[in-house]
Amino acid sequence: MNLKIALLPGDGIGPEVIKEAVKICEAISKKFDHSITWQEGLVGASAIYKTGDPYPDATHEMCINSDAVLFGAVGDPKFDNNPSLSVRPEEGLLRMRKKLGLYANLRPTFTFESLLEMSPIKRSIVKGTNLIFVRELTGGIYFGKRGKSPENDYAFDTCEYKREEVERIAKIGFDLARKRSKKLCCIDKANVLETSRLWRKTVQSMERNYKDVEVSYEFVDAVAMRLIHSPNKYDVLITSNLFGDILTDEASVISGSMGLMPSASIGSQTSVYEPIHGSFPEAKGKNIANPLATILSASMMFERSFNLTKEAEMIRKIVSHSIEKKIVTEDLAENNKSFSTSQVGDWIKERIEKE
Ligand code: IPM
Ligand code: MN
């Protein structure tokens, strides 16, 4: 099979973690007789510096004409501390999501037995956690009407949802729940927000088509607490854009490191696979960033975009071995015995070759 993949390394540690994921994709496709055609595009701050635009048209064209997109990270501290700038790196990511119609973001949270001690939460609580968020990605307060007064003493953002935007997320959630442990949690703030009541009503009306799935409706503030208190209780969780952004960062603590968490953004056009972590500018160029979130995102890409399950499983299995053998970057290391970004990538690559 020939796989046409667009790479958008972006900013900060993005290029370093993407480089390792490319190594792994190449090794896997060699093993299973596939070939990959790579193309590389600009996004984020690096795109602003070169073109003035965080998501240039050329990058969008490249994404549309690829079978899948592997994305690093965007963000640059030079932009963070200056709220008056008119263009920001993050806008590149948001425009890409909107223009590619990537309305759902799948963010799994899992644990590795050998890493249970790395979580700041007690072993007995995190053990066995295996859940997946379906975060709505192209609507809500991220994309609603917004504005500010000329005097800069007033500003507003609005959260809007249409029934169909909720339905398509709920459908993904119900279908996933069916394949997993048949439990779905709809997270909202229906005691206060009108959009949340729309979410709740919409999901309730779909329940009759999924009688085998047990649905719970929970308020976002309570879920924020229960995720830490009893993460094992959850399986598939569906929620709006902003709630999903916040809760998935929180959930990454369960696994022990944000550097482990992959994601898939899916919708009407080419899917995008990206780690949930940011551009981690402090680590840029130091060869210390954890490449596993991006490598696991590549595994999701093999499975979802190419239907290559064996390839995806082999990547997951060897990542899991690397963790057991403590071939890990400093975020996961014990007693200062850590490996560099490229050493972790090389180890996994060599193990794939030996399989
Ligand atoms: C994420 C990020 C983005 C978001 C930022 C970089 C715009 O935090 O993918 O979770 O808020 O969606
Ligand atoms: Mn986020």
Low confidence ranges: none
Question: Which band does the percent of strand residues land in?
Answer: 15-25%
Radius of gyration: 20 Å
Helical content stands at 40-55%
Shape estimate: globular
Number of separate structural domains: 2
Which cofactors or ions or other ligands sit in this model?
A: 3-isopropylmalic acid, manganese (II) ion
* CATH third-tier fold name of the largest domain: Isopropylmalate Dehydrogenase
| CATH architecture classification of the largest domain | 3-Layer(aba) Sandwich
Draw up the topology in text.
Elements: E1 2-10, H1 14-31, E2 35-40, H2 45-51, H3 57-64, E3 68-73, H4 77-80, H5 89-99, E4 104-110, H6 123-126, E5 130-136, E6 146-148, E7 155-157, H7 163-179, E8 183-188, H8 194-206, E9 214-219, H9 220-229, E10 236-239, H10 241-255, E11 264-266, E12 272-273, H11 292-306, H12 309-324, H13 341-354
Parallel strand pairs: 1-2, 1-3, 3-12, 5-10, 8-9, 8-10
Antiparallel strand pairs: 4-5, 4-11, 6-7, 11-12
Helix pairs in contact: 1-11, 1-13, 7-8, 9-10, 11-12, 12-13
The structure holds 3-isopropylmalic acid (IPM) and manganese (II) ion.
Task: Give a description of the structure.
The chain has 355 residues and is α/β, with parallel strands linked by helices. It has two domains: 1-102 and 271-355, Isopropylmalate Dehydrogenase (3-Layer(aba) Sandwich); 120-255, 3-Layer(aba) Sandwich (Isopropylmalate Dehydrogenase), CATH 3.40.718.10. It contains 13 helices and twelve strands. The protein has helices spanning 14-31, 45-51, 57-64, 77-80, 89-99, 123-126, 163-179, 194-206, 220-229, 241-255, 292-306, 309-324, 341-354, and strands at residues 2-10, 35-40, 68-73, 104-110, 130-136, 146-148, 155-157, 183-188, 214-219, 236-239, 264-266, 272-273. It has a ten-stranded mixed beta sheet with strand order 2-1-3-12-11-4-5-10-8-9, sandwiched between helices. Strands 6-7 form a two-stranded antiparallel ribbon. A hairpin with a 5-residue loop joins strand 11 and strand 12 (272-273). The longest helix has 18 residues, at 14-31. The model has no long low-confidence stretch (mean pLDDT 96). The protein binds 3-isopropylmalic acid (IPM) and manganese (II) ion. 3-isopropylmalic acid (IPM) binds at residues 75, 90, 93-94, 245, 276.
